[in-house]
Design a protein that fits this description.
- The chain is of the alpha/beta class.
- The chain has 2 domains: 87 residues, Thiamin diphosphate (ThDP)-binding fold, Pyr/PP domains (Rossmann fold); 128 residues, Rossmann fold.
- 32% of the residues lie in helices and 19% in strands.
Length: 248
């Protein structure tokens, strides 16, 4: 379809793209234009269990030469990013979230490959909380709790995982004195945390990054239970931010 000039879209559970990775890799070598959407990602899907939980898809798709990797956090951002996918050459992957979460962005909000959104910010932020998808909502809840404790937190929606918005990350590093908490519903290798660390590794003053990610083998339960068990829920984000801010 791509060779004939069409723009094909394929969608499945994100976990199942592991079975197709050789074809995705060869499509990149062939310089094909294809769009892939992976749903039901991470421990957030809950009762389906670890066989259905994509926890390596961001690493897999980021590793494809010339790929673009997107990760919306609400319905409006997903709709806008689908349009962006259609107009972006190469292999474009979107990771989507199963659960129903509040709308953050108004209809028509603009998004760009290589961009991000600073959802909450102050001139005197002590720490930056960086997430995408479900973890953006958890970071927003954590920022509200931290505000009550006198810790101001910047919240960044890293919806473009590849390419990543280095300028915004660099500014967050400067304002917060290098205190960054990256939280992701993914294994620690190759996901949001890796993207942030790679972007800022050459800074004159590299950040102190706390990377909250799924490190063990998940079980089956409610989304809330599994997010807590993985150490990526709101309480874990608050605790990590407080440690970085010297409040514990």
């Amino acid at each position: 379809m791509s060779v004939r000039g069409y723009v094909p879209f394929a969608s499945t559970f994100a976990a199942f793209f592991t079975r197709a990775f050789d074809f995705v890799r060869m499509a990149s070598i062939s310089e094909a234009n294809i769009r892939l959407s992976g749903s039901h990602a991470g421990v957030e899907i809950g009762a389906d269990g670890p066989s259905q939980m994509a926890l390596e898809d961001l690493a897999m798709m980021r590793a494809v030469r010339g790929s673009t990797v997107l990760y919306p956090s609400d319905g409006n951002s997903a709709a806008q990013l689908v349009g962006l996918m259609a107009d972006t050459d190469g292999i474009v992957y979107m990771r989507t979230t199963r659960g129903a979460y509040p709308v953050i962005y108004p209809p028509g909000e603009s998004f760009a490959a290589g961009g991000s959104k600073v959802v909450v910010s102050h001139d005197d932020d002590t720490v930056a909380l960086i997430g995408a998808g479900v973890t953006l909502h958890l970071a927003l809840a954590a920022a509200a709790e931290l505000e009550k404790a006198g810790v101001r937190a910047r919240v960044i929606d890293l919806y473009s995982v590849k390419p990543v918005d280095t300028a915004t990350l660099r500014e967050a590093n400067r304002v917060t004195g290098g205190r960054l908490v990256v939280v992701e519903d993914h294994h620690p290798e190759g996901g949001l945390g890796s993207a942030v660390l790679e972007a800022l590794a050459q800074e004159a003053r590299p950040p102190r990054v706390v990377q909250l990610a799924v490190r063990g083998l998940p079980g089956s339960g409610t989304p809330e239970e599994l997010l807590a068990a993985a150490g990526i829920d709101t309480a874990a984000i608050v605790a990590a931010a407080r440690r970085l801010a010297g409040k514990d």
